[in-house]
Amino acid sequence: MGIHEGHAAGYQIIDHEADTGFIVFAHRYEGLFTYSARALFSLITNLRKVRKGETKEVLIPLEPDSLIIFLNELLYLWDADRFITKTVAIRKEGSALRCAAQGEHFDRKRHIIKKEVKAATYHGFSIEFRDGLYRARFIVDI
Prior knowledge:
alpha+beta; 4-stranded antiparallel sheet; 3-stranded antiparallel sheet; about 25% helix
C-alpha cells in the first residue's frame, strides 16, 4: 500500500545493510499483520499477478513477538509449499490470533521471483502506538 503519508495505513521499505526492512502503519493492531504480509510478499513477487484462490489458516499465540512469528509462518508456507500470500484476514481467538492467508501456489508462467526472503528477524523489531497509529518495524534476512 505504499509509503506512509499523514495518518494513512500501509508500509514503507527501508534500507538496512545487506537486508531489507519495513515500517508498517495501521489503525488497528490486526492491521499490522495485514500490511506486514503484503510488504513481505511484495519483496518476493508482484502481488498484482497473484490470485486469491486458496486459503491457508495459521494460529499464532498472542505474544509481544506475534508479528515476527506470523511472518515466519507465512515464509514457511512459501518455502515448504510455494504458497504466495496475497491478503490476510486476522481474528482474535482467546489468547491467539487466527490468520487466514489467501493466495495461491507459485506458477512459473505468471509469477516471477524478485527476491528470496529467508526470515523475519528480531533485529530492530518494535511495535508502538502513537498518534492514533500502530507502527511496527522489522528487518527481513534476504
